[in-house]
Amino acid sequence: MNLKILAKELNLSFSTVSKALRDSHEISPATKQRVLEKAKELNYQVNPLASNFRKQKSKTIAVIIPEVVNDFFGPVINGIESIAQEKGYHVLIYLTHDSMQKELEISKLLQNGRVDGIMISLASQTSNTDHLNILKEKEIPLVFFDRIASEVGTPVVITDDYHCGFIATEHLITNGCKHIAFLTISENLSISNDRKNGYLDALKANNIKHDQALIRFCNEDDMSNKDNIKNLFSGNNQPDGIFASVEKLAVATYQICEELTLNIPKDVKVITFSNSYMAALLNPPLSTITHPAFEMGRESATILFKLIEKKGLNRIPKKTVLKSNLIIRASSVR
């Protein structure tokens, strides 16, 4: 008789039975009583060796990110490292390359307890979170940052992407734009949808009817993205403003404008989300929404270690929202 069989006999999850046997406050008294009675009936005995093994710490945490060729995730990792070092922990970095399949394989690898906690920013292809729910059911401390899955029900650390999308769009409108295109990379990601909703509401607030043809979903292929952006300027309703949800789409816009001899900002104004110092060095300098990446790493790691150490659990916020900054440069002004 083991815990897995006991859970099956009770028609309860492994996690629920385990918590009930440990007298967890998360389980109702009635369920605890039912579990204890069935355990006694089936002569279930707690394995002290296995219990002690589970209590051992690996002194390692995992960070799952979609890419490293990005000026955002580098500072995030630095922020995480600054907390991990204080705690005497090692940090393992796993890359999904924006692949849901890769993310699933990594999460399966980490189910065996090789790390004490996990921090994750979702891949752009992730459309199902069952593999992440399994981590939660196995009681592995889990924190989402930036690209989140709020339905999993673990703490998340984000910026206010909706508000940023709104103010970026309104900035372009204030500077004379009436046909603003929105470039994004995924229909699955929370950040993409929040930024798009901010964009749409800013248009509505300024009595500008949105044109669905001006919303472009791009991908990981640079040539395909350039063709998509070039196609924007071939129609009758050419954009006079470009709001790129990620920096690489803004850079692609610069390249296409040069190819088509369009002047930035005279013919088209451009703004994007970016943490790159290179934005200020472009010609013209690129206006950006800049996230507090280092602070996001520190905050996410701080919450994860509270979960690992089981300290102040009732005071851990389900959602932590950090403030971003609008940096206006020549690419988006009159």
TrEMBL record:
GO terms for molecular function: DNA binding. Residues 1-55 form the HTH lacI-type domain. InterPro entries: HTH_LacI, LacI/GalR-like_sensor, Lambda_DNA-bd_dom_sf, Peripla_BP_I. Keywords: DNA-binding, Transcription, Transcription regulation. It comes from the Bacteria. The keyword 4Fe-4S does not apply. The keyword Secreted does not apply. Pfam families: LacI, Peripla_BP_3. PANTHER family: HTH-TYPE TRANSCRIPTIONAL REGULATOR GALS, LACI-RELATED TRANSCRIPTIONAL REPRESSOR. This is LacI family DNA-binding transcriptional regulator. It comes from Arcicella lustrica.
